[in-house]
Amino acid sequence: MTRLRIAGGMVYDPANGVDGEVRDVCIEDGRVVASLPDDAPRLDARGLVVMPGGIDIHAHVAASSVNAARRILPEEHVRDPERAPALEGGGGRSGTGGTVPTTFTTGYRYAGLGYTTVFDAAVAPAAARDTHAQFDDTPIVDGGCYILMGNDAYLLRQLAAGERERARDYAAWLLGATGGYAIKVVNPGGVELWKRNVREVRSIDDAVEVPGVTPRAILETLADAADALRLPHPVHIHCNNLGVPGNVATTLASMQAVDGRRAHFTHLQFHSYAGERGKAWSSAARQVIEHVNAHPGLTADVGQVMFGPATTLTADGAVEYLLHASTGRKWVNIDVELETGCGIVPYEYREKAAVSALQWVIGLELFLLSSDPWRVVLSTDHPNGGSFASYPELIRLLMDRAYRDERLKGVNQKMLAGSALADGIAREYTLNEIAIITRAGPARQLGLTRKGHLGPGADADVTIYTPNADRAVMFSTPRHVLKGGVPVVEEGQLRRAPSGRRLHVRPAFDEGVTRDLRRWFDQYGTISFDNYPVAPLRDPAVGEGA
Amino acid sequence: MSARAGIVEHVTCLGCGCACDDITIVARDGRIAEARNACALGAAWFGDGSVPDEVRVHGASASLDAALDAAAALLAGARRALVHLATDVSCETQRAALGIADILRGAADGPTTATAAGGVLAAQRRGRAGATLGEIRNRADLIVFWGVDPARRYPRFPSRYAPEPPGVFVSGARAVAGVDVGDAVAPDGVEPRLRLDPGEELDALAALRAALAGRAIAAGARALAERVAPLAERLRAARYAAVVYDGESASGGGGGGDTRRAEGLIALVQELNAHTRAALCALRAGGNRSGAEAVMTWQTGFPIAVEFSRGAPRYRPDEGAAAWLARGDVDALLVVGDPAALASLPGADAPRVCIGPRASTARPEAVVAIDTGVAGIHDGGMAFRMDDIPLPLRPSLPGPRDALGVVTALAERVRRAAAGRPA
Amino acid sequence: MSDVVTLTLRVPLEREVEADVVTPDRLATLGAREIAALPLWEGARRLVLGDLFEIRGERAARVRVVGDCARVIALGAGMTAGELVVDGSAGRYVGTRMAGGVLHVTGSAGDGAGLEMVGGVLRVDGDAGDRVGAARLGASKGMLGGEIIVRGAVGAEAGARMRRGLVVCGRAGARAGEGMIAGSVVALGPIGDDPGRYNKRGSIVALGGAPVPLGYAYDCTYHPPHVALTLRMLRARFGVVVDADSDSAPYRRYSGDLAELGRGELLIREGA
User: Fold this and answer.
1) Residues on chain B touching A127 (C-beta within 8 angstroms)
2) Interface contact C215, partner B, CB < 8 A
3) Chain B contact present for C257, CB below 8 A
4) First to last CA, chain C
């Protein structure tokens, strides 16, 4: 296990400028190395495609909200039993799938697609301990989580008091206390407003609590914090008005608000709608993506909608109420104390439904009109826009125009007038670009220097595919997957399931904030300040130690 | 302070689902002398912290190694092994124990099925509009105690969560209302108060919903509608209402009736959110039973009553541990946790392995009994509050061997034994 | 190749055995030896069909099961085509999630007959237990389509949460049509307590009378043409015996559950 030469494959390693060249990838003790002696064990990769392991920058796989969703989906789980894989030495675990699979099944299925790193994009700080426990039961993949801060009562208080530095110190403390990787903002201020029964954010200058506390101020403060704390990933933003027609206005305003700072805008598709509430919707993908194209400090993931079952689950409780009211489907809302919210509604995107078709088109437009694959990467906001299991199908849509156009003919056309995709987009992603939007790009956006590439020093997370003209087949059935040098998939069979590592940060901050925080907890908390931080994580923080 | 005395602060109590984490344990001479801040129920749960420390096989003292071998042999040789996730163990221990059921293609269940399945099933049908306890504390301006006086089984709920403590977003005293359902009464002195016969409860919930939605009601329901109207008005006028009920069936009709009641409450509070903000709060008992549901959910997709005979989890809420035992379908039972609650189940005399606090006191006596510490007194780890907020456990006394270590060791032996069996 | 596959239970069962493999569409593709090797489950114990049943015939989409199968559960589960006749009683969950074909139980059926059925016809000549055509516990949708005709009485929660389709029975137990999304429950006899709670758009027809829950409001008394049509269809297709007066009788119509959409109905035959 300690040494392996992956010999003679067509290597796609865009971070190192390697675009389909035939060469060897050498692995020693879990890392890529420049060379190995000739007698090192070899894996014959001739004729195969070699890429770094996939990185999911935005999914919901291990949060308390995810478990709340699993709990209300017995119908899906009954229909998708997953037997334990036949692992070397035994110990494989069974589970159930559907759009929100169980933890072991999640790890196995991601690895089965060649993904080796996954971030849970929305963790309520008070429930971070739950996330780490779920990750402990999610094998193979390295995991990290983003910590919800955009509606945090303590943080909003600091903004109200003009204490932006203390807000930054609080963000730093919170990341360390929760074992988080990045700052997440969901519907800034809007979740707090939902808790106050205010269900609409008209603009990013709406006052949330007191004048001056606005979505804009929250975005600015947290974007500044991420920069000042030199976090590897910038603030990760889910804008106001998700899913609402006409939300392009708040989306662009939010992008302008953080101008000059680093920022990541997530599931952009859900925020790129023109039109008005109660009236016709249309695509605003071009406007949004052109703004992103022109602003190199911004990065994004798309949040593509895929036809079929989904489970919408988000900290954005207000949105889920609307979805429940319009579909009549089962609905969970959990307001999380002084921090955030949570809403869950099972959903289905249908080709014949006008809104689903529009969403599908907008996502594809964002991909196809993006000028920089390094900055606009692949996601379905799993399981919101569809399951991560649909990534191979999404890759096919991006790489195969004929297939895409054929699919486009089959969808509801009602809202597609004037859309760029309906007018015809010739672009087809290359394998190198796919390697960027699923590997190298997310790694760069996340500041993961050891992931997403195959240069010396990189983690030996490698996926080896058998080329196939049907890209969905190719990307759904990797021939080999290595994780940290361990061959987890061999000849298409899952054979090993080592524990993944935890990716987290521990930024420095002024300890003064903890004195104030202790008072806040004593006065209003239901968890003792001393009990709030999660237990020390086994893996060192990113940037500290090996 | 002498070496034989110690103080541990911020200890989490698992005496009920409130999981108060502000307990200070004062220990002297290896015993708990004081559990500061604990209520009477909590103090009784901590006791003096003494638990038996034995390892027994067929009633005789044995080494841990021999006991684990005997347990693995019994379980691996079973046609159907049932793993019961009982109370007072950590989530870490529950995770390892559930793995044993999976590897053996056995079955698994926890305490919820017997006492609170109704709320679980109703929420699976409809979802739920809820909040964590701290959100209720900090935001709710109206608390409705529906057929429950929390002082009885959740003594510190009123002082830690609602209605007593100050809340960030609550100015002044909050409003409280009560609903009595037969003998299940709201706290003394709470006014206004709606008094219902148990047979009226579902119709009252429906009448409240109809009133909130502004829908006409049947002529025969007018009298009931008039009685519930004041409560409907209060709910609608609240900025954030919390409806608190007892999720454990002892206070309700029990069995299937409980599901309907939970469904009625869920439907009411969901409807309320069309007009104002509201949360339903199901009070749940302690011992980390919420943890058992959470762990079963993330490992199997189902919170209760799972069986693995076909190699993957199957959901059997129509059956569950009690039915499997009563039917004689279980030929080896592994209880992980306090075995006391299981003694009352019919058929629980199946050959048993008990691992957990007071395992050696189980009657009838287990084939293999391994005493461990109590999660939160001797053992650390994580446990869930009734609202699924995870909390750390802080051991305050040295105890017998820790449950996690024992269950992990057993799981490893079972895995090796099962690897030799045909699939 | 034969006309029919006959499975005869060798000895009475002491414990329940799960036989969800017994579907005509599956047996239509299998030879006798393969049929004998199909797995059955007694709890967690795996048996094979040949252990418990004597098998005659092979590769036929007509299947006859003979013997007291009251402890054989999930017969015909998920069947999509063909004909399955249980000559005697069937255990729990007969015809669960069946999507097509005809399943005929000449005796009685246990709980959960036709649970979450999708299509086809399930006939029971005797009685059936609780939750005929209903949803599994914890699931939000019951029967999605097809027809269930029970000549005898059914237990509680007949048609609970059904979304489409038809359940016909003699006497119905408590909580008939609970949480119906749509579809019809027709009881030729009386209906037990508390029918139609949480009903959204479902239709519950009681030829033998029913209590009117508080969540239902009286609309009118009329001659519902769809009831007459349904009854005629039942006579013609299934030989169901219903007195001719029922077709032309007046019915009291109540709408409910008013706590839900209030678009469901409870039709009670006048004079019942």
Assistant:
1) 388-390
2) yes
3) yes
4) 52
Among B135, B235, B391, B416, most A C-beta atoms within 10 A, so best to mutate, is B135
CA B182 – CA B257 distance, rounded (Å): 15
Residues in chain C closer than 8 A to A325 (CB atoms): none
User: How far is the C-alpha of B63 from the C-alpha of C29, rounded, in Å?
Assistant: 56
Min Cα distance B145 → chain C (Å) is: 22
pTM of the model: 0.97
CA distance B220 to C256: 13
**For residue C31, how many other CB atoms are within 10 A of its CB?**
12
Q: Secondary structure of A70-97 in the HEC alphabet? A: HHCCHHHHHHCEECCCCCCCCCCCCEEC
Q: Show residues of chain C in contact with A329, CB under 8 Å.
A: 140
Query: Which of A91, A94, A523 lies closest to B415 in CB terms?
Result: A91
Assess contact for C59 and C82: CB atoms under 8 A: no
**Cα–Cα distance measured from residue C190 to residue C169, given in angstroms and rounded to the nearest whole number:** 10
Comparing alpha-carbon positions, the chain B residue that sits nearest to A107 is: B299
Write out the two tokens for B53.
């420390």
pLDDT tens digit at each of 423 positions of chain B: 444 569 999 999 999 999 999 999 999 999 999 999 999 999 999 999 999 999 999 999 999 999 999 999 999 999 899 999 999 999 999 999 999 999 999 999 999 998 899 999 999 999 999 999 999 999 999 999 999 999 999 999 999 999 999 999 998 889 999 999 999 999 999 999 999 999 999 999 999 999 998 887 777 888 999 999 999 999 999 999 999 999 997 434 334 448 999 999 999 999 999 999 999 999 999 999 999 999 999 999 999 999 999 999 999 999 999 999 988 889 999 999 999 877 767 776 789 999 999 999 998 899 999 999 999 999 999 999 999 999 999 999 999 999 999 999 999 999 988 876 654
Size of the A and B interface in Cβ pairs below 8 Å: 202
**Residues in chain A closer than 8 A to B139 (CB atoms):** 195, 335
- Which ipTM did the prediction report? 0.96
Put simply, the answer to whether B218 touches C197 (Cβ < 8 Å) is no
Burial A154-189 (b: 16+ CB within 10 A, else e): bbbbbbeeebbbbbbbbbbbbbbbbbbbbbbbbbbb
Cβ-contact A542, A229 below 8 angstroms? no
Chain centroid to CA A209:
30
Q: In angstroms, rounded to a whole number, what is the distance separating the alpha carbons of residues B335 and C29?
A: 45
CA–CA distance from A200 to each of A195, A197, A327, A431, B394 (Å)? 12, 9, 19, 42, 43
Q: Does B209 sit within 8 Å of C197, measured CB to CB?
A: no
Could you give the CA distance from residue A498 to residue A3 in angstroms, rounded to a whole number?
17
Indicate which of A71, A77, A78 best probes the interface with C, i.e. most C CBs within 10 Å of its own CB: A78
Spatial CA neighbour of C178 closest among C166, C160, C192: C160
For B187, other C-beta atoms within 10 Å of its C-beta total 17
Rounded Cα distance between A360 and B306, Å, is 37
Among chain C residues, the shortest Cα distance to A331 is held by C140
Contact A343, B279 (CB under 8 A): no
The DSSP secondary structure of A461-509, one letter per residue, reads -EEEE---SSHHHHHHS-SEEEETTEEEEETTEE---PPPPEE------
Cα dist from B110 to A156, A331, B32, B116, whole Å: 41, 25, 29, 10
Q: Within 13 A of C97's CA, how many CA atoms are on the CB side?
A: 11
Shortest Cα distance, chain A CAs vs residue C134, angstroms: 14
Interface contact flag, B206 C44, Cβ < 8 Å:
no
8 Å CB contact of C45 and B205: no
Distance from CA of C104 to the nearest CA of A (A): 26
Minimum CA–CA partner of C135 in chain B: B125
